[in-house]
# Entry
Amino acid sequence: MAIDYAEKIPNNINIANDKTLQRALEHWQPSFLNWWQEMGPSDFQASDVYLRTAVSVDSDGWAQYGAVKMPDYRWGIFLADQVPERTIGFGDAMGQPVWHQVPGEYRSTLRRLIVTQGDTEPASVEQQRMLGHTCPSLYDLRNLFQINVEEGRHLWAMVYLLHAYFGRDGREEAEELLARHSGDPDKPRILSTFNEPITDWLSLYCFTYFTDRDGKYQLKSLAESSFDPLSRSCRFMLTEEAHHMFVGETGIGRVIKRTLEVMKGLGTDDPAAIRRAGAIDLQLLQKYINFWCSSSLDLFGNEISSNSAASFANGLKGRPDESTYTDHVLRDSTMKLLTPEGEQDVPMLNALNEVMRESYLKDCEIGMRRWNRAIERAGHEFRLTLPSIRFRRSIGTWAGLPVDPKGNLIAKDEYERRKDEWAPSEADRAFVKSLMQKVTGPGKMAGWIAPPERGINNLAVDYEYVHLN
Ligand SMILES: [Fe+2]
Ligand SMILES: [Fe+2]
# Structure
């Protein structure tokens, strides 16, 4: 069904048919817009931004591009088309028809899954709200705002589910999604990664590469859900999410490209000389990768989890790409897990967080290989690596243990002595911060990052993607 933009809340699910729901969402809408003004991007609300807006949910040509002032962005409710006669694809009820309402016995678990996902969406907008003031170019500024408005829409996607299927509790949860704030000491966001400040663009690129990719994996597993409205919401969100990871992968790629140019110009790979020339040495980039990758790994939860076992067995949350597996019930299989106490055999159902974490890390490798090829082609030995799944963990069996990036358990004092080699130190952060100067001349680019290969929607790189008003 096409998206109806004549409605106050654009949607493709005919909410005008359900007056109670429509009224409830129209009541939430001004609170959302208030939140956007107060907690969304600082300044730039009067600027014209070259944004894409969904016009349908078909895979070909769902987006329309044009100059929009962010507060006028048409946030709405878009679900992927219903799959006719869809059946449950995993767990103990495999093969039965999917649910179009919430089964009473799963109500609180489903609500928790939706609230936890929903909470991350506005959190990331809050984390990124000051970045516009230090953008490396108009192209990057536009990409930041594109991500921000889409995360705002992802919040709408989850709020719709809460309003439509969870009654009064759902409406209260929707209010709470606007009341918690990233980093707030009294009312923080639910997951710790979403309370980490993002005050520089190197962190933004790492966040969109690693943390938005966690989002991709969560959405993929929720897209498998037997609760069909959740599945349809997440399937459309995934099409938007792809651009966020593109910003991360190309952003880091452009940082590397620029660093390699500076190294060539200077004829040295000495980090201090590279920093003096205003570029980001690869060792420093490695520390940011270590930081954001390990922080994102925590988002998958405990290695051994009875919650994730129940969510799978009951059909609430599957594995990403469930159809590519052969066993969809998992009652008879086990997985070997390395814990600090040694190797353990764990029932597969209880190890699903780890299954997801491992497939996530494989996905993270793809960009790494591309970046390393660029470094290799430039004739350098240095290689970027992903940290071990056990490094710097705050959740799970390895939480709080002194582990080096290769995954070796080491002495606590050695860890303390060397941790600044592995994750950004105060001095590293101060250096990166010193590079963050706002560049907004059309076609101009900050000195620490190379221009992109191409512009947005076939436009030139030097197109005026944001017209500052
Ligand atoms: Fe999102
Ligand atoms: Fe995202």
Summary: The mean pLDDT is 96. Residues 195 and 250 are 25 Å apart (CA to CA).
